[in-house]
Amino acid sequence: MRLRLRAVAVLTALAAGAAASPGVASAAVPTPVAASVAAPAPEALPDAGRLRAALDKLTAAGAPAALAEVRVGDVVWSGASGVRDLRTKQPARAGDRYRVASITKTMTATVLLQLADEGRLKLDDPVARHLPGLLPYPEPITLRQLLDHTSGVPDYFDRLYPTGSDAEMEQRRFRHHTPRELIGRATEKPLQPVGTFAYSNTNYLLLGLVAEKVTGRPLGEELRRRVFRPAGMKDTSYPDRSPLLTGPHVNGYRLSGDGRLVDTTLYTPSVWGAAAGVVSTSGDINRFHRALSDGTLLSPARLREMRTTNAAGYGLGVIGGGDLCPTAPGDLVWGHMGNGFGYRAQSWSSPDGRRQVSFGWTVSVPTVGGPPKVDEAVQEFLEAALGATCASPPAR
To answer: Is CB count within 10 Å lower at the N or C end of the chain?
Structure first.
């Protein structure tokens, strides 16, 4: 049995507003499938060969590198395929760093939910209470609506990259932007219907500013203090100015209009900020989601709130998707996807954090999905990885 992409809700909504944007995260997630309640997860991953083969198909389909970690309890499989750099041909390693793009949103949301637990803000506060005068719209917009993309605030990407052309990308890759500048560009456009899901990176730039206003510290410092260190994410960073990737990493590549792979590793990360600026590894992303589930980062009540979804299947910085072997009927896997300049990523975790899949690959195009062969290979790896965490092989 083959999982199908859940395109009707989240992906369609993203594509409608982001098809021309070079970096808006896609959110194709596995559709819930019929399954009986699973036995306890295995203490070994029996499908290591299939995982290796599926990862190799990703690079064979056109991604210069693919990196993954699959975890069941304390049992871990990690792997890499392809090369760090097309010029040097140095082999990629499973622990290499990459830009995780919109997986950042779950981390930013975690900071906001912690501040709510501390009584320093309320999720139903209007944005204007914390950032007076920044939004030009008369209708009140709440922090909760920013978190689940129902605020109606437009995205800024089509203002920065109206054509998504190669020349446009090259001209602007090292230009520094402040969050307020990008928000100003977005709000030149009219407000979309409030209460309706419309994916927008602007929402998370606003949330980053709220976190900074409430704490009096830069968001990067709050992420390190509140998320990275408690979760044990030693290879994760939040660069805000430097275009460089430090430490062992894979280069990112954008498929140009003429079919060339253009190295886009270096760019000023301020274009992403609180929406998509984190650099991490597959292992660290799994550590993050485990720390979310085990109470290290959020109280059980806040975690339930985070995983309460709107009609599009989006919660407060997380997406719920179908599982091949849910522990209880109706259980979903929780996580996010990322689509940046030259990098794409996915991360999914069972509700208890015991079963986890995180992986990234190093090719992007200026649309939400694609290239098609890579998308097919991504889906095949996701099925193999989720299936490898099941106590018994799911029916196919």
So the answer is: C
HSE of 137, CA atoms in CB hemisphere, 13 A: 22
Higher pLDDT, residue 66 or 8:
66
CA atoms within a 13 Å half-sphere pointing along the CA-CB vector of 304: 3
- For helices 179-186 and 201-215, what crossing angle results, to 10°? 140
Compute CA distances 139 → 38, 133, 156, 190, whole Å.
47, 12, 19, 12
Residue 243 token pair: 């275009």
User: Would you place residue 396 in the very low, low, confident or very high pLDDT band (cuts 50, 70, 90)?
Assistant: low
pLDDT at position 197 over 90: yes
The reported pTM is 0.90
Q: What percent of the chain has pLDDT over 70?
A: 86
3-class DSSP state of 227: helix
Return the CATH number at 175. Answer: 3.40.710.10
Tell me the residue range of the domain where 288 lies: 7-388
Is 165 one of the annotated active-site residues of the chain? no
CB 363, CB 60: distance < 8 Å? no
Helices 48-60 & 372-388, crossing angle to 10 degrees?
Answer: 170
DSSP 234-267: TT-B--SS--PPPSSBPPPEEE-TTS-EEE----
Q: Is 381 domain-assigned?
A: yes
What 8-state DSSP symbol labels residue 336? E
From its phi and psi, is residue 111 left (phi > 0), alpha (psi between -120 and 50) or beta?
Answer: alpha
Residue 61, domain member (yes or no) = yes
Q: Is residue 396 part of a domain?
A: no
Reduced to 3 DSSP states, what percent helix, strand and coil does the chain have, rounded to the nearest 5? 35, 15, 50
- What distances in angstroms separate CA 251 from CA 63, 100, 132, 198, one per listed residue? 11, 12, 40, 31
Q: Which of 26, 78, 81, 102 is catalytic?
A: 102
Residue at 394 is within a domain: no
User: Is-contact 80 248, C-beta < 8 A?
Assistant: no
Indicate the angle between helix axes 104-117 and 201-215, nearest 10 degrees.
Answer: 40
Per-residue tokens: 365: 């195009």
Q: How many CB atoms are closer than 10 A to CB 317?
A: 27
